[in-house]
Amino acid sequence: MSEQADSGGPSSALRSLGRLIRVLSNKRDLLHEMVARDLKGAHSGHALGPIWMYLHPIIVTVTFMLVFGTVLGTRLSVTADIPGDYTSYILVGLVPWFFTAYLLGRGPSVFTSNSNLVKQVVFPIEILPAAAVIVSCIIYAPTFLLFLIYKLTLGGGLPLSALLAPVTLGLHALLALGVTMALAVLTPFLKDIREIVTVYSGISMYFTPAVYLPDWVPAILRPIIYLNPFSYVVWVYQDTFFFSTIAHPFAWIVLALLAFGAFFGGLFLMDRLKPYLGNVI
Q: Among 18, 99, 107, 153, who pairs with 180 as Cys (CB 3.0-4.6 Å)?
């Protein structure tokens, strides 16, 4: 019976979830240490030190604000499709996408760059993907704050739907953790994943509705937007922080399925492949 239960199914998923919660709870000090080490060591020796981690996404975001929001935004007027200024529209889509792209870039190296820790039998490797997600949240928090400041001061304020922010952020975090776990544990066995993710991250932004409306895209190319899983992340953020209503109800359903599917899928892969990681790293 135990072997059947461990082979998959709801009971196995719940046990995996319970183990993850226990590890993160019992090893809080270790998790904090890994996060602090990552933040301090990223730009050690640089004149500005870890400040570069926060400056880089802010500079990129401001650049997009100037190029798309100012140049293209002056040609657009407030309509039923874009009920607000265009700069707010692109910010609410680009900020979560940049966070996602950053994690996609980090995910494949979470275990391979910490091979000395992964090979230690007593080290709880579940800490590493969780630390990567927390570090990414910290790095992009100032960029998200920049968006909120702009929205409150120049973008007409936050809509009532912003009360859904905890749900939106929670689903995004769950999706991010699941994808990070999957990439981290699969890459040592399938090293091409790193290159695939790099290519996807480079082109995916142009196939998400972050800087344009789907209706602006030729009909023959529009299905690509709907096939891109991270389009649904952007739509949910737009509903929460830009539109005053749930303009994309289907996106909420898809994002919830993606988030929980990625999370439990990542847990499943971690449980199955963890015993073999030391042999391939």
A: 107
Give residue 70's pLDDT.
Answer: 66
Degrees (nearest 5) of the Cα angle 249, 222, 193? 90
Closest among 132, 125, 131, 65 to 102, alpha carbons compared: 132
| Contact by Cβ (8 Å): 86, 72 | yes
Task: Select from 26, 188, 36 the least CA-distant residue to 114.
Answer: 188
Q: Which residue has the tokens 């042999």?
A: 279
Per-residue pLDDT, 2 = 40
User: Mean pLDDT per 10-residue run, the chain (281 residues)?
Assistant: 50 82 90 89 62 87 80 53 77 92 93 89 90 94 93 89 96 96 95 93 88 85 92 96 91 97 94 88 81
Query: How much of the chain is helix, strand and coil, in % rounded to 5?
Result: 75, 0, 25
pLDDT for 167: 97
Length of the chain: 281
Query: Does an H or E element contain 244, and which?
Result: none
**Residue 9 falls in which region: left (phi positive, over 0), alpha (psi -120 to 50) or beta:** left
Cα–Cα distance measured from residue 245 to residue 262, given in angstroms and rounded to the nearest whole number: 27
Give me the residue label for tokens 């499943």.
268
In terms of Cα–Cα distance, which of 240, 206, 229 is closest to 68? 206
Encoded amino acid at 255, one letter:
L
Can you tell me whether residue 24 is helix, strand or coil? helix
- Which residues are within 8 A (CB) of 21 and not within 5 positions of it... i.e. 6 or more apart? none
